[in-house]
Amino acid sequence: MKATGRAYSLMTVAWVIVIMSYLLVRWEGIALTLPILTIFLLSSLLFKPTIDIEVSREISSSRVIEGQKVTVKLRIKAKSKVISLYIQDLTPNSVEIIGRNFAVFSFNSGDEREIKYEIKVPRGYHKFEGVRVVYRDPLGLFEEDKVIDLYDEVIGVPQIEDIITPYTTKGTKITIGHLPSPRLGEGLEFHAIREYQPGDPIKIINWKATAKLGKIMVNEFESERKVDVVVIIDATYKGQSVFDYMMRAASSVLLDALENGMSFGILISEAVPLMINVDYGKRHFFRCIDALSMAKPDKNNLIFYQVEHLSKTKIPPRAQIVFISPFLTKESEEALIALYTRGYRVVAISPDPYSTYTPQTKEENLAIKLLSLKRKARLKKMRKYAVIIDWNLKKSLRSAIMEVIK
């Protein structure tokens, strides 16, 4: 129980009367404080400090595509009579509230009330932590303010666009048995003969070549549906304005790989890099999407060192790399060159951070032109290391890919 602003105001008035009565030696003035003291007495008698209610929350969907609306219903049931109870749902600050997430109710024992509103969910992880309940006595002098723990979460996943595959789907990889794709076993072609390595199946041994060369040789195959795809996202804070676009591009590339029956993984270059190893299937796809949903720009730009290390330990040899970055830093350029140096095929998708900005003055317009020219010069330099898709964000990603991949 604590005093309200009104209570402090009345107490201030009472003290002023007492002090003035003392200074003027007019003790009858003390009688003027009796009504104030009576009000405090009545308020303390009428005040009910125990808030005996049950609260539950219902969310129409816990996982939605970014930008969509979700309906939230907060149900309150009183176990005793309560007069003038303020209730507010502690909605995450990261979402847009449509309607009112608070109300003032009076309850009799057993009464139920409901607060209904909507939220517009951006990409990311959004957590409801509780419900705020405030009870104030009828005279407004004392109140009890507490939070009832009530945990829920909503995840906004990136928007996914239907794109064309921006790379060849052929990959040199040993393939045994059925391929995990819609057309099982198709597209399997002989690629080369190489020396046996521990773990290779016996059925792929080329006995004729083994007898001729005097050492165990195996067949290596090329499959149109078996290339490993690794999507690398540059999480630099300098690309914060286009970060959501990068997540959408990554999600679209992963869905395309899933539909083509290819294995895929992701690397998000945060301060602590998040690497999800290459795998197949819908369950793996949704795991990657959850990671993309919760990714945030990072102030520690260590992408070059992360790529250099993980390309030696985690990223499969001969994998197809899809590198997503606005290329605003020297580190991102060096990371792409490092991948090329290690023999990876790279397609770079670069959302243009200046394509959606509208300058307000001539100075801003000139600054944007200079920054755009600097970025385009960097992209031109990198075209000898990768296929560069310069994505004007006023257009769809599919259109940007089609302009390059014809």
UniProtKB/TrEMBL annotation:
The chain crosses the membrane at residues 7-24, 30-47. Keywords: Membrane, Transmembrane, Transmembrane helix. It comes from the Archaea. InterPro entries: DUF58 (IPR002881). Residues 193-349 form the DUF58 domain. Coiled coil: none annotated. This is MoxR associated protein.
